Amino acid sequence: MNVLIINGPNLNLLGIRETSIYGEKSFTQYFEGICKKYPQYHFEYFQSNIEGELIDKIHEVGYSYDGIVLNAGAYTHTSLALADAISAVKTPVIEVHISNVFKREKVRHHSFIAPVCMGSISGFGLDSYRLAIEALSSVI
Ligand code: DQA
Description:
The protein is α/β, with parallel strands linked by helices. It has helices at residues 19-22, 27-37, 51-61, 80-88, 127-139, and strands at 2-7, 42-47, 67-71, 93-97, 119-122. Helices cover 34% and strands 19% of the residues.
């Protein structure tokens, strides 16, 4: 199973940024743990702060990979273009959030991408990514 994990804007600062919300671990550290935990899967990791680069990456792997785990960061709440990219490809996409977006400001309650994703996981810290991988592994 080939799985791409995509992180959107500001998520390159995990471990540094607002640690009371997002925790103290860097994503690189967490990703190493994921690769060790699931040696039977092939993982790729991509992060960008640029909306168009996230869209290009979805296009690039969206007809060949088995799954995409996507934390679109704030683009979740703003980007119809990202939603269109997810609709365009065949690979199932799981929406992930580290924080429980529904416990936060109202502007974070709406997701443009939720309706075009296979499902959404929010609020379990970095473990949200693992839960998404578990979900993918049971459907593909
Ligand atoms: C986030 C939640 C978003 O509202 C926020 O803009 C992020 C991170 C999360 O993982 O909890 O950048 O996607």
